[in-house]
Amino acid sequence: MSIKKMIAGFMCAVLLLTSVVVSPYTANANEVNAETSELQAGAAVRDITPTQFPMSQGLARQNLVGVIDPIHVRVVALNDGNEKALIVTWELGDTPAPTEFVDDLAKETGVSREAIFYCATHSHAVPDAIKMEKDDPWMQYAHTQMLEAAREAIANLESVSVGIGYTDSYINVNRNRTYVKTDGTTNRSQGYNPEGISDKELALIRFDSAETGKPVAFIVNYAVHGVVMYANNDFMDENGNYGVGVSADLPGYVSTCIENNFEDSVALWISGAAGDQNPIVGNEYFVPDPATGAKQTKILGQGGGKILELLGSIQYADVLKANSEITKMTSDAKIGYGFGQKNIPGYEEGSEFRASLHMLRFGDIALMGSSGELFCQYGLTLKEESPLENTLVVNNAATYNDEYRTYMCTDEDLEIGEGQGVKKVFAAGYLNDTLVALMKGLINETQDVKKTAQDYYNEGNRIKNEQGTSTVTATKERYEAAREQFLLGAAMEETEESREAIANCLVQIGECSVYLEKGPNGETGTALKDYVFDCWEKAGSLGNGTGYYDIGLAYIGFEIPGAGMGECLGLAHDEEQQKTGVSYLEKALELKNGKAQRYIGMCYHFGYGVEQSYEKAYECFSKTSGADLYIAKYKLFGLGGLEKDVTGGIDLLKPKAESQKGGNRTEAQTSRLILAELYYTGSYSEELYDGTVATVTIDKLDQETALTYLSYYQNEYALNTAVIDAIVAGFKVKMGKADAADEEIKKAEEEINRLQN
User: Fold this and answer.
1) What value does the mean pLDDT take over residues 532-553?
2) What is the reported pTM?
3) Measured between alpha carbons, how far is 536 from 730 in angstroms, rounded to an integer?
4) Which of 4, 136, 245, 429 could form a disulfide with 68 if both were Cys (CB 3.0 to 4.6 A apart)?
5) Which residue, 296, 299, 256, is CA-closest to 281?
6) Burial of residue 51, with CB atoms counted within 10 A of its CB: 0-12 exposed, 13-18 middle, 19 or more buried
7) How many degrees, rounded to 5, is the angle at CA 695 between CA 694 and CA 700?
8) 622 — alpha (psi -120 to 50), left (phi > 0) or beta?
9) What confidence tens digit (pLDDT) does each residue in 12-47 have?
10) SS3 content of the chain, % helix, strand, coil (to 5)
């Protein structure tokens, strides 16, 4: 087997092994009525402050002995005339008895359990409800208060308009800091890391009474832990001993400020993706030891209350700023809701992790709740990827007892392996894409706006290009799912606005069908060719040059982009078909398809469907971007009327060879192999169209650089070392060192055969 054939064979194996897919999500969501509706809202608040002390069930290291400020449960009820919903927020570390309490809310109010958005502020100087049974005396009291608040909120329902405003609030900071000790060792733990990822965005939702114009309710969303008062030791009991006092912390302070200044309103504060976000300072804080560099834990003691007042006042001012940014209010906001979940691989081999999201939306505003503590990056990604204009990510939103209710760190944190909240529970590489898919699925299930051809095209592209499991079967499943979206888009009514998206869908239907080697109705052979060409012809007639471009490539025998080789179309690729292919490329060029110019140049280069001419080929190459590889070869060999310019040719190859991400992978691969052979052996040869061999030589070898280019090639395709050894062995054969290369070639052949089988 020749070196060239060995590498070509191996690349086929690599491409099969690296195909990827993500399985579809599962979601339970109700479809929203598309008729115009008028939104109603009502709100209520109840005090749930404990009265019996000491109370050992406080969060870690806290024995609650009294009250600094009260804690509450707040409820907003919504009704759009068709669907009803509740938003329940506890000033607690986590949601109490979610399965039982939400079931009771549903029974008491008649609101579907999936329409109850049930969350906690994640304040820390509070009873630890997650550790308590439902029949605990304080839990029974909290349960009663919750039901009363829900009943009152529903009784208070009135016609409202809703709007949302945003601003930045600079009171949070990434809390994972790397401590550098004097002995040179490092430790990553809780601390102050202003350079870490942090989401400063504060969102404010406001519901205004249609009758009075006054606010009925507010919802504040911000990513920060409620730990200003953690371990506050600020309360003196009747015996004069200091202990930890109950406090609603920053969320409660801000809610109370709003309610005190906007009469008869109720203000819910809900946590954003704050798994790695702390207040910039709190009662408990962490700094490097000046002597050792190690982490120190400090407690302010009775100073915590002043910090709470400072940060709470700053954020309340930010709330007022966000409130001033609410310029658009609407009463037409239909309610949608759902719960989605999916199992992904766990960190331990063979284990599984169940990811879930809860969604409640009203109009174009969606609350997207995670049962655990998402790190900030997940919140940023979900907001960026959301199809809705306004998506708020909410931590500590569990409605079932068995949901995962602690930290969800990023893949980067898992790799680092240490830091506050870095728990090795789920395997890296899955959670981010799973959460995005769950979110989009829930939103799509509740869309009350008719999807456009562009929507279907975007969704098809997302599915087609999604990263995931690397098997051929999974990739085919992904392409089939993508093609379903493209088919829906192509079936939309053709209008001036939809024409471009429909044409794009038609191109993709054809390319997916070529990759799958069958049409959507099982077409193969001639039927498949006719079906695919019909799609591409129609795309071209709609002004999409890519349709004509794909037909041209298919007739000539070039690879169809995104679809692999088109042998399944059964084309002869003879002279007549190649002439037809060139004519289609010319039609594509007339529609401003720049890639067609390069491939027409390649036709002149090889003599496909036209009389071979290096001069005309070079003329085409010089008019289009992306032809650097061909122009480089023309300079190396002195083709197309160019004088031989070895230095100029190498200078064009180097950027492609040295690029390690993006761009055309095939051209990068070819550039690396040309330069590697040139620098290792001192020459590079290529057979021309007429059978003659063109050769370029250099005076000085640079085998170290040659091996560097091969390492880029190896890393790009995750190649086994044996393949690189085979390439080097081929170089040695060329240099007259065949005996030394025989064993390397034999090992490489064995490895390639193993991978292909």
Assistant:
1) 97
2) 0.60
3) 42
4) 245
5) 299
6) exposed
7) 165
8) alpha
9) 333 322 332 222 222 333 333 333 358 999 999 999
10) 45, 20, 35
